[in-house]
Design brief:
alpha/beta; Glutaconate Coenzyme A-transferase; 15 helices; 26% helix
Length: 430
């Protein structure tokens, strides 16, 4: 490989170029900082990134660089959230599983892909580490590939590998992926997790996310048998179930015997567990999130979250009013694929109120809020006050069901709103 300094590598960037930066806990920080150091000499550089889990704001998100860099987030995280809110950057709405096609087709042109890889194996292949998701397609589409060859990056097995001969410029570093720890679930999260866990059968194939509610679900299925994993994000919670034999992937139709994911984020223990582990495989998100692939597994259980749910079952998960918070991610991909799976179930899980006491089940979504999952797709909705199934219900029946799991102090106002909106069809249900 052509080893150079970070500054030499980023000297390949020209004004007007478009750059992809790898995400998850594998953000190539050394390369980002080197690019930011050129902020006073570059203009109109487009930056694509998604789901960046970092300790601080991106180094190129500074007002003095507003003409140098235009950030186009594909899944917004805290490293660029304030930048976008201030109007300097933006977000491109797209299903996560469809973004690789946008790269490969040239609709989102990628001149330079910046990745954060493991050291090469005996055959000269580097692993993409924590972030196969969009990186595979970005590298395939890019004219130039710049890679951090990272001594501390685990070698993750599967289809997310790049031969050293394909790397234009390599920067040696020892930058451990960000280690994350999550506390025990709160009582509210435990209650929600318990309702969902009770609906998961033996032999199910899990798609589950990150945080207190997913951890509570996983705590509730420790005695289950022959579970499978085909998910977007690999976390410590599922690793524990793999280690304990609860997840053995024996009944999956797609990659039987293998746990499948597209990205990973968690503790140092998890990264060590994944290093050269042939029982866990990471792939391009275009494949992992393809609903037609997902549906082939039996009893798919898809668990996702929301910021708000309205009385008809519309799910907002990407914005708080007009303020973009994240994006659609893989929620639609797995909600659709899970619904098509034989015996599949899909869940939207959320506390009944925010930390500030605002109800999350609302008469109508906040003006400006985006619909991530339509009311035509919503199956189960879960709060700490219960679980309801919406799929076979009319609008008035949905409202009644959702009110039953709203915070008790919010129910009277919600009933009044439902009466005004749905009239006698709601009143006759009382």
């Amino acid at each position: 490989m052509n080893y150079v300094s970070a500054d030499e590598a980023m000297s390949l960037v020209k004004s007007g170029n478009s750059i992809y930066f790898m995400g998850s806990t594998a953000v190539p920080n050394v390369l980002q900082e080197a690019l930011a150091r050129r902020g006073n000499e570059l203009r109109d550089v487009i930056i694509y990134s998604a789901f960046n889990v970092t300790e601080g704001e991106a180094p190129f998100c500074k007002p003095e660089y507003k003409d140098a860099f235009l950030t186009n987030s594909l899944f917004l995280c805290h490293d660029q959230r304030a930048w976008v809110k201030q109007g300097y950057g933006s977000m491109i709405p797209a299903f996560l599983g469809e973004i690789p096609y946008l790269f490969r087709s040239g609709q989102l042109p990628v001149d330079i892909a910046c990745i954060n890889c493991s050291e090469p194996d005996e055959n000269g292949y580097c692993s993409y580490g924590m972030s196969a998701d969009l990186a595979v397609s970005a590298v395939e589409s890019a004219k130039i590939v710049i890679a951090q060859i990272n001594k501390s990056m685990p070698y993750l097995c599967g289809g997310a590998l790049i031969h050293e001969s394909k790397i234009t410029a390599a920067v040696a570093c020892d930058d451990a992926p960000l280690a994350l720890t999550f506390g025990d679930p709160t009582p509210i999260e435990s209650a929600i997790g318990g309702y969902i866990a009770a609906e998961i059968p033996d032999g199910a194939t899990l798609q589950i996310g990150v945080g207190g509610i997913p951890n509570a679900v996983l705590n509730g299925i420790k005695s289950h048998k022959h579970l499978g994993l085909h998910t977007e994000a690999m976390t410590d919670g599922v690793v524990r179930l793999i280690e304990e034999g609860v997840i053995d992937n024996s009944l999956k139709k797609i990659k039987p015997g293998k746990s499948v994911a597209s990205l990973a984020l968690g503790s140092k223990h998890m990264y060590e567990f994944l290093d050269y582990n042939k029982d866990v495989e990471f792939y391009d998100v275009a494949w992992t999130n393809d609903p037609q692939v997902i549906r082939q597994n039996p009893r798919v259980i898809a668990i996702n979250s929301a910021l708000e749910v309205d009385l008809t079952g519309q799910i907002c998960a990407d914005s708080i009013g007009n303020t973009i918070f994240s994006s659609v991610g893989g929620q639609h991909d797995f909600m659709y694929g899970g619904a098509l799976s034989e015996g599949g179930k899909t869940f939207i899980a959320l506390p009944s109120r925010t930390n500030k006491g605002k109800g999350k089940i609302v008469p109508q979504l906040t003006p400006g809020a985006g619909v991530v999952t339509t009311r035509f797709q919503t199956q189960y909705v879960v709060t700490e006050h219960g679980i309801v199934y919406l799929r076979n219900k009319n609008l008035a029946e949905r409202a009644k069901a959702l009110i039953s799991i709203a915070h008790p102090d919010d129910r009277e106002d919600l009933e009044r709103a439902a009466c005004e909106r749905f009239g006698y069809s709601f009143l006759r249900l009382k």
